[in-house]
Design goal:
The structure is a homodimer of 184-residue chains. The first copy, chain A, contains nine helices and no strands. Chain A is mainly alpha-helical and 184 residues long. The structure holds a DNA duplex (18 and 18 nucleotides).
Chain lengths: 184, 184
DNA sequence: GTCTATATAGGGATAGAC
DNA sequence: GTCTATCCCTATATAGAC
Protein backbone atom coordinates (compact mmCIF):
# COMPACT_ATOMS: atom_id res chain seq x y z
CA UNK A 1 0.00 0.00 0.00
CA UNK A 2 1.84 3.10 -1.23
CA UNK A 3 1.44 6.69 -0.16
CA UNK A 4 -2.24 7.39 0.27
CA UNK A 5 -3.65 9.41 -2.60
CA UNK A 6 -5.94 12.08 -1.24
CA UNK A 7 -8.37 11.84 -4.13
CA UNK A 8 -8.73 8.09 -3.69
CA UNK A 9 -9.15 8.43 0.06
CA UNK A 10 -11.86 11.04 -0.38
CA UNK A 11 -13.59 8.81 -2.91
CA UNK A 12 -13.71 6.00 -0.36
CA UNK A 13 -14.92 8.40 2.30
CA UNK A 14 -17.62 9.70 -0.02
CA UNK A 15 -18.89 6.21 -0.69
CA UNK A 16 -18.96 5.43 3.01
CA UNK A 17 -20.76 8.63 4.02
CA UNK A 18 -23.21 8.08 1.21
CA UNK A 19 -24.01 4.60 2.48
CA UNK A 20 -24.06 5.22 6.23
CA UNK A 21 -24.60 8.92 6.60
CA UNK A 22 -22.44 11.29 8.63
CA UNK A 23 -23.51 10.25 12.11
CA UNK A 24 -23.80 6.64 11.02
CA UNK A 25 -20.20 6.35 9.88
CA UNK A 26 -17.89 5.85 12.86
CA UNK A 27 -14.12 6.20 12.94
CA UNK A 28 -13.70 2.43 13.01
CA UNK A 29 -15.66 2.08 9.79
CA UNK A 30 -13.85 5.03 8.28
CA UNK A 31 -10.55 3.40 9.14
CA UNK A 32 -11.64 0.07 7.66
CA UNK A 33 -13.08 1.62 4.50
CA UNK A 34 -9.99 3.66 3.73
CA UNK A 35 -7.40 1.21 5.00
CA UNK A 36 -5.90 4.02 7.07
CA UNK A 37 -5.31 4.06 10.81
CA UNK A 38 -6.46 6.85 13.08
CA UNK A 39 -3.02 8.43 13.00
CA UNK A 40 -2.98 8.66 9.22
CA UNK A 41 -6.52 9.92 9.06
CA UNK A 42 -5.96 12.78 11.47
CA UNK A 43 -2.70 13.58 9.76
CA UNK A 44 -4.51 13.90 6.44
CA UNK A 45 -7.58 15.61 7.93
CA UNK A 46 -6.54 17.67 10.99
CA UNK A 47 -10.11 18.78 11.59
CA UNK A 48 -11.31 15.22 11.82
CA UNK A 49 -14.55 13.74 10.62
CA UNK A 50 -16.14 17.07 9.79
CA UNK A 51 -13.31 17.86 7.40
CA UNK A 52 -13.61 14.41 5.83
CA UNK A 53 -17.27 15.09 5.26
CA UNK A 54 -16.63 18.52 3.80
CA UNK A 55 -14.16 17.19 1.27
CA UNK A 56 -16.50 14.32 0.45
CA UNK A 57 -19.33 16.75 -0.14
CA UNK A 58 -17.16 18.85 -2.39
CA UNK A 59 -16.16 15.79 -4.43
CA UNK A 60 -19.73 14.53 -4.72
CA UNK A 61 -21.05 17.93 -5.63
CA UNK A 62 -18.41 18.16 -8.32
CA UNK A 63 -19.40 14.76 -9.66
CA UNK A 64 -23.07 15.71 -9.60
CA UNK A 65 -22.40 18.98 -11.38
CA UNK A 66 -20.38 17.33 -14.12
CA UNK A 67 -22.87 14.48 -14.53
CA UNK A 68 -26.16 16.31 -14.28
CA UNK A 69 -25.97 20.08 -14.05
CA UNK A 70 -23.41 20.95 -16.71
CA UNK A 71 -25.07 18.85 -19.45
CA UNK A 72 -28.41 20.39 -18.54
CA UNK A 73 -26.95 23.86 -18.79
CA UNK A 74 -25.50 22.93 -22.15
CA UNK A 75 -28.51 21.71 -24.06
CA UNK A 76 -31.47 22.07 -21.70
CA UNK A 77 -32.49 18.49 -22.44
CA UNK A 78 -34.72 17.45 -19.56
CA UNK A 79 -35.02 13.83 -20.64
CA UNK A 80 -31.24 13.59 -20.70
CA UNK A 81 -31.16 15.04 -17.20
CA UNK A 82 -33.28 12.18 -15.90
CA UNK A 83 -31.05 9.66 -17.63
CA UNK A 84 -28.03 11.31 -16.06
CA UNK A 85 -29.71 11.27 -12.66
CA UNK A 86 -30.41 7.58 -13.04
CA UNK A 87 -26.79 6.97 -13.87
CA UNK A 88 -25.49 9.20 -11.07
CA UNK A 89 -27.63 7.36 -8.55
CA UNK A 90 -26.57 4.03 -10.02
CA UNK A 91 -30.04 2.92 -10.97
CA UNK A 92 -31.13 3.35 -7.37
CA UNK A 93 -28.19 1.64 -5.70
CA UNK A 94 -26.91 4.95 -4.38
CA UNK A 95 -28.72 7.32 -2.06
CA UNK A 96 -28.70 11.08 -1.77
CA UNK A 97 -26.06 12.22 0.69
CA UNK A 98 -27.65 15.69 0.70
CA UNK A 99 -31.12 14.55 1.59
CA UNK A 100 -29.72 12.29 4.27
CA UNK A 101 -27.64 15.10 5.71
CA UNK A 102 -30.66 17.35 6.05
CA UNK A 103 -32.16 14.87 8.50
CA UNK A 104 -28.90 14.00 10.24
CA UNK A 105 -28.72 15.09 13.90
CA UNK A 106 -25.31 16.61 13.18
CA UNK A 107 -26.11 17.83 9.69
CA UNK A 108 -26.69 21.46 10.59
CA UNK A 109 -23.03 22.36 10.14
CA UNK A 110 -23.22 21.40 6.46
CA UNK A 111 -26.33 23.37 5.66
CA UNK A 112 -24.55 25.73 3.27
CA UNK A 113 -23.19 22.87 1.15
CA UNK A 114 -26.57 21.16 1.12
CA UNK A 115 -28.42 24.25 0.00
CA UNK A 116 -25.80 24.96 -2.63
CA UNK A 117 -26.35 21.53 -4.12
CA UNK A 118 -30.09 21.96 -4.48
CA UNK A 119 -29.86 25.59 -5.58
CA UNK A 120 -27.42 24.79 -8.34
CA UNK A 121 -29.53 21.93 -9.60
CA UNK A 122 -32.78 23.84 -9.34
CA UNK A 123 -31.36 26.90 -11.04
CA UNK A 124 -30.21 24.91 -14.04
CA UNK A 125 -33.52 23.06 -14.33
CA UNK A 126 -35.61 26.21 -14.03
CA UNK A 127 -33.55 27.90 -16.71
CA UNK A 128 -33.93 24.89 -19.02
CA UNK A 129 -37.69 25.01 -18.58
CA UNK A 130 -37.82 28.74 -19.21
CA UNK A 131 -35.74 28.33 -22.34
CA UNK A 132 -38.18 25.65 -23.47
CA UNK A 133 -40.94 28.23 -23.30
CA UNK A 134 -42.49 27.26 -19.99
CA UNK A 135 -44.06 30.13 -18.09
CA UNK A 136 -42.00 31.42 -15.17
CA UNK A 137 -44.27 30.40 -12.32
CA UNK A 138 -44.81 26.98 -13.82
CA UNK A 139 -41.10 26.51 -14.37
CA UNK A 140 -40.31 27.37 -10.76
CA UNK A 141 -43.02 25.07 -9.49
CA UNK A 142 -42.04 22.19 -11.73
CA UNK A 143 -38.36 22.35 -10.90
CA UNK A 144 -39.11 22.49 -7.21
CA UNK A 145 -41.43 19.50 -7.55
CA UNK A 146 -38.83 17.59 -9.52
CA UNK A 147 -36.12 18.06 -6.92
CA UNK A 148 -38.36 16.99 -4.08
CA UNK A 149 -39.74 14.16 -6.18
CA UNK A 150 -36.29 12.74 -6.75
CA UNK A 151 -35.30 13.11 -3.12
CA UNK A 152 -38.53 11.55 -1.90
CA UNK A 153 -38.18 8.67 -4.29
CA UNK A 154 -34.68 7.99 -3.00
CA UNK A 155 -35.94 8.04 0.57
CA UNK A 156 -38.77 5.60 -0.08
CA UNK A 157 -36.54 3.40 -2.23
CA UNK A 158 -34.24 3.10 0.79
CA UNK A 159 -37.13 2.38 3.12
CA UNK A 160 -38.43 -0.44 0.99
CA UNK A 161 -35.04 -1.56 -0.32
CA UNK A 162 -36.58 -1.17 -3.75
CA UNK A 163 -33.93 0.12 -6.12
CA UNK A 164 -36.36 -0.12 -9.03
CA UNK A 165 -38.39 2.70 -7.52
CA UNK A 166 -35.97 5.29 -8.82
CA UNK A 167 -36.39 4.27 -12.45
CA UNK A 168 -40.17 4.26 -12.09
CA UNK A 169 -40.18 7.66 -10.43
CA UNK A 170 -37.84 9.27 -12.92
CA UNK A 171 -39.86 7.90 -15.84
CA UNK A 172 -43.07 9.38 -14.52
CA UNK A 173 -41.50 12.73 -13.73
CA UNK A 174 -39.92 12.87 -17.17
CA UNK A 175 -43.28 12.22 -18.80
CA UNK A 176 -44.95 14.98 -16.81
CA UNK A 177 -42.24 17.51 -17.55
CA UNK A 178 -42.02 16.59 -21.22
CA UNK A 179 -45.74 17.01 -21.62
CA UNK A 180 -45.71 20.48 -20.15
CA UNK A 181 -42.78 21.42 -22.36
CA UNK A 182 -44.49 20.12 -25.50
CA UNK A 183 -47.51 22.26 -24.68
CA UNK A 184 -45.45 25.40 -24.32
CA UNK B 1 -47.24 17.67 38.49
CA UNK B 2 -49.50 14.71 39.19
CA UNK B 3 -49.16 11.08 38.24
CA UNK B 4 -47.76 10.91 34.76
CA UNK B 5 -50.38 10.08 32.21
CA UNK B 6 -48.99 7.61 29.71
CA UNK B 7 -50.85 9.13 26.78
CA UNK B 8 -49.55 12.60 27.54
CA UNK B 9 -46.01 11.33 28.02
CA UNK B 10 -46.11 9.52 24.70
CA UNK B 11 -47.45 12.65 23.04
CA UNK B 12 -44.48 14.62 24.31
CA UNK B 13 -42.12 11.87 23.23
CA UNK B 14 -43.69 11.83 19.79
CA UNK B 15 -43.21 15.55 19.37
CA UNK B 16 -39.60 15.26 20.45
CA UNK B 17 -38.76 12.34 18.17
CA UNK B 18 -40.48 14.11 15.35
CA UNK B 19 -38.35 17.19 15.85
CA UNK B 20 -34.98 15.60 16.58
CA UNK B 21 -35.23 12.10 15.18
CA UNK B 22 -34.50 8.89 17.07
CA UNK B 23 -30.72 9.13 17.21
CA UNK B 24 -30.91 12.89 17.65
CA UNK B 25 -33.02 12.74 20.80
CA UNK B 26 -30.86 11.94 23.82
CA UNK B 27 -32.01 10.84 27.25
CA UNK B 28 -31.31 14.29 28.68
CA UNK B 29 -33.60 15.89 26.11
CA UNK B 30 -36.19 13.19 26.64
CA UNK B 31 -36.09 13.85 30.35
CA UNK B 32 -36.43 17.59 29.85
CA UNK B 33 -39.22 17.30 27.30
CA UNK B 34 -41.32 14.96 29.43
CA UNK B 35 -40.45 16.44 32.80
CA UNK B 36 -39.62 12.92 33.98
CA UNK B 37 -36.34 11.73 35.47
CA UNK B 38 -34.47 8.70 34.24
CA UNK B 39 -35.94 6.56 36.99
CA UNK B 40 -39.49 7.38 36.02
CA UNK B 41 -38.79 6.94 32.33
CA UNK B 42 -37.32 3.48 32.73
CA UNK B 43 -40.10 2.55 35.10
CA UNK B 44 -42.67 3.52 32.47
CA UNK B 45 -40.67 2.10 29.56
CA UNK B 46 -38.58 -0.88 30.76
CA UNK B 47 -37.13 -1.41 27.28
CA UNK B 48 -35.82 2.13 27.17
CA UNK B 49 -35.59 4.48 24.27
CA UNK B 50 -36.56 1.90 21.68
CA UNK B 51 -39.83 1.26 23.49
CA UNK B 52 -40.49 4.99 23.75
CA UNK B 53 -40.01 5.23 20.01
CA UNK B 54 -42.27 2.27 19.32
CA UNK B 55 -45.12 3.72 21.33
CA UNK B 56 -44.56 7.11 19.72
CA UNK B 57 -44.71 5.54 16.29
CA UNK B 58 -47.93 3.77 17.18
CA UNK B 59 -49.50 6.99 18.41
CA UNK B 60 -48.40 8.98 15.36
CA UNK B 61 -49.53 6.28 12.99
CA UNK B 62 -52.89 6.27 14.71
CA UNK B 63 -53.15 10.03 14.36
CA UNK B 64 -52.16 9.85 10.71
CA UNK B 65 -54.68 7.13 10.01
CA UNK B 66 -57.50 9.03 11.65
CA UNK B 67 -56.55 12.31 10.00
CA UNK B 68 -55.67 11.17 6.51
CA UNK B 69 -56.28 7.52 5.73
CA UNK B 70 -59.72 6.92 7.20
CA UNK B 71 -61.31 9.96 5.54
CA UNK B 72 -59.74 8.93 2.25
CA UNK B 73 -61.14 5.45 2.61
CA UNK B 74 -64.51 6.95 3.36
CA UNK B 75 -65.12 9.21 0.40
CA UNK B 76 -62.10 8.81 -1.86
CA UNK B 77 -61.72 12.59 -2.02
CA UNK B 78 -58.14 13.23 -3.07
CA UNK B 79 -58.32 16.99 -2.66
CA UNK B 80 -59.50 16.50 0.90
CA UNK B 81 -56.55 14.15 1.46
CA UNK B 82 -54.12 16.93 0.59
CA UNK B 83 -55.92 19.32 2.91
CA UNK B 84 -55.73 16.73 5.66
CA UNK B 85 -52.03 16.19 4.97
CA UNK B 86 -51.43 19.91 5.23
CA UNK B 87 -53.20 19.97 8.55
CA UNK B 88 -51.45 16.86 9.85
CA UNK B 89 -48.06 18.34 9.00
CA UNK B 90 -49.09 21.67 10.52
CA UNK B 91 -48.68 23.68 7.33
CA UNK B 92 -45.10 22.47 7.12
CA UNK B 93 -44.10 23.04 10.73
CA UNK B 94 -43.95 19.31 11.37
CA UNK B 95 -41.70 16.81 9.62
CA UNK B 96 -42.19 13.19 8.70
CA UNK B 97 -40.95 10.92 11.46
CA UNK B 98 -41.17 7.96 9.04
CA UNK B 99 -39.02 9.47 6.34
CA UNK B 100 -36.50 10.59 8.91
CA UNK B 101 -36.37 7.16 10.48
CA UNK B 102 -35.58 5.55 7.14
CA UNK B 103 -32.35 7.50 7.03
CA UNK B 104 -31.55 7.18 10.73
CA UNK B 105 -28.44 5.14 11.52
CA UNK B 106 -30.48 3.22 14.09
CA UNK B 107 -33.72 3.17 12.15
CA UNK B 108 -33.45 -0.38 10.86
CA UNK B 109 -35.17 -1.81 13.91
CA UNK B 110 -38.34 0.15 13.08
CA UNK B 111 -38.53 -0.88 9.45
CA UNK B 112 -41.77 -2.79 9.87
CA UNK B 113 -43.57 0.20 11.38
CA UNK B 114 -42.21 2.50 8.69
CA UNK B 115 -43.30 0.27 5.86
CA UNK B 116 -46.69 -0.22 7.43
CA UNK B 117 -47.23 3.53 7.46
CA UNK B 118 -46.50 3.96 3.79
CA UNK B 119 -48.31 0.81 2.76
CA UNK B 120 -51.48 1.81 4.53
CA UNK B 121 -51.43 5.28 3.03
CA UNK B 122 -50.54 4.06 -0.44
CA UNK B 123 -53.18 1.36 -0.37
CA UNK B 124 -55.93 3.80 0.48
CA UNK B 125 -54.80 6.28 -2.17
CA UNK B 126 -54.52 3.66 -4.88
CA UNK B 127 -57.99 2.39 -4.10
CA UNK B 128 -59.40 5.92 -4.23
CA UNK B 129 -57.85 6.45 -7.64
CA UNK B 130 -59.15 3.13 -8.92
CA UNK B 131 -62.62 3.96 -7.67
CA UNK B 132 -62.38 7.27 -9.50
CA UNK B 133 -61.87 5.35 -12.72
CA UNK B 134 -58.12 5.67 -13.07
CA UNK B 135 -56.46 2.76 -14.83
CA UNK B 136 -54.64 0.33 -12.54
CA UNK B 137 -51.09 0.98 -13.66
CA UNK B 138 -51.61 4.72 -13.61
CA UNK B 139 -53.19 4.56 -10.16
CA UNK B 140 -50.25 2.61 -8.76
CA UNK B 141 -47.77 4.98 -10.33
CA UNK B 142 -49.57 8.11 -9.19
CA UNK B 143 -49.96 6.98 -5.61
CA UNK B 144 -46.31 6.01 -5.42
CA UNK B 145 -45.33 9.38 -6.86
CA UNK B 146 -47.58 11.20 -4.41
CA UNK B 147 -46.09 9.51 -1.37
CA UNK B 148 -42.53 10.19 -2.45
CA UNK B 149 -43.49 13.70 -3.51
CA UNK B 150 -44.81 14.51 -0.05
CA UNK B 151 -41.80 12.99 1.69
CA UNK B 152 -39.37 14.76 -0.60
CA UNK B 153 -41.13 18.06 -0.08
CA UNK B 154 -40.88 17.64 3.67
CA UNK B 155 -37.17 16.87 3.39
CA UNK B 156 -36.40 19.91 1.26
CA UNK B 157 -38.64 22.11 3.40
CA UNK B 158 -36.50 21.11 6.37
CA UNK B 159 -33.28 21.72 4.46
CA UNK B 160 -34.30 25.24 3.51
CA UNK B 161 -36.33 25.96 6.62
CA UNK B 162 -39.11 26.84 4.23
CA UNK B 163 -42.38 25.73 5.73
CA UNK B 164 -44.30 27.22 2.81
CA UNK B 165 -42.83 24.58 0.52
CA UNK B 166 -45.33 22.01 1.76
CA UNK B 167 -48.35 24.04 0.72
CA UNK B 168 -46.85 24.71 -2.69
CA UNK B 169 -45.99 21.06 -3.21
CA UNK B 170 -49.35 19.76 -2.10
CA UNK B 171 -51.18 22.22 -4.34
CA UNK B 172 -49.25 21.13 -7.40
CA UNK B 173 -49.68 17.45 -6.63
CA UNK B 174 -53.38 17.94 -6.09
CA UNK B 175 -53.72 19.66 -9.45
CA UNK B 176 -51.92 16.87 -11.22
CA UNK B 177 -53.96 14.13 -9.58
CA UNK B 178 -57.23 15.95 -10.05
CA UNK B 179 -56.55 16.42 -13.72
CA UNK B 180 -55.88 12.74 -14.26
CA UNK B 181 -59.04 11.87 -12.34
CA UNK B 182 -61.15 14.28 -14.36
CA UNK B 183 -59.92 12.66 -17.54
CA UNK B 184 -60.84 9.15 -16.39
C1' DG C 1 3.58 9.16 8.22
C1' DT C 2 1.86 5.61 10.95
C1' DC C 3 1.15 3.19 15.07
C1' DT C 4 -0.91 2.32 19.84
C1' DA C 5 -2.52 3.94 23.97
C1' DT C 6 -5.16 7.20 26.08
C1' DA C 7 -7.90 11.34 26.99
C1' DT C 8 -12.44 13.23 27.15
C1' DA C 9 -17.21 13.38 26.45
C1' DG C 10 -21.55 11.44 25.71
C1' DG C 11 -24.61 7.85 24.85
C1' DG C 12 -28.16 4.45 27.08
C1' DA C 13 -29.04 1.63 30.93
C1' DT C 14 -28.98 0.16 35.86
C1' DA C 15 -28.97 -0.18 41.13
C1' DG C 16 -30.28 0.99 45.37
C1' DA C 17 -31.83 4.51 48.67
C1' DC C 18 -35.87 6.82 49.73
C1' DG D 1 -42.64 5.86 41.67
C1' DT D 2 -38.87 8.79 41.71
C1' DC D 3 -34.29 10.20 42.59
C1' DT D 4 -29.16 10.15 42.21
C1' DA D 5 -25.04 8.05 41.43
C1' DT D 6 -22.78 5.06 38.66
C1' DC D 7 -21.73 1.57 35.19
C1' DC D 8 -20.48 0.31 30.64
C1' DC D 9 -19.86 1.11 26.09
C1' DT D 10 -18.91 3.80 22.18
C1' DA D 11 -17.84 8.05 20.07
C1' DT D 12 -14.22 11.48 18.43
C1' DA D 13 -9.93 13.35 19.20
C1' DT D 14 -5.12 13.53 20.87
C1' DA D 15 -0.23 12.44 22.37
C1' DG D 16 3.90 10.49 21.95
C1' DA D 17 6.82 6.58 20.50
C1' DC D 18 8.72 4.83 16.40
Amino acid sequence: MGKPNRVEVVAKLSALFEKLGYTGAGMNEISAATGLGRGSLYHLFPDGKAQMMRESLAALQDEFSQSVVVPLQGDGDVTAMFENLLHFYREGERGSIWGRLILDPQGEQFKAEIQEHFNEWRGALTKALLDAGVERGTAASLSERTLSGVEGTLVLAAGFEDSGALLRGLRTMNSQLSEVISQS
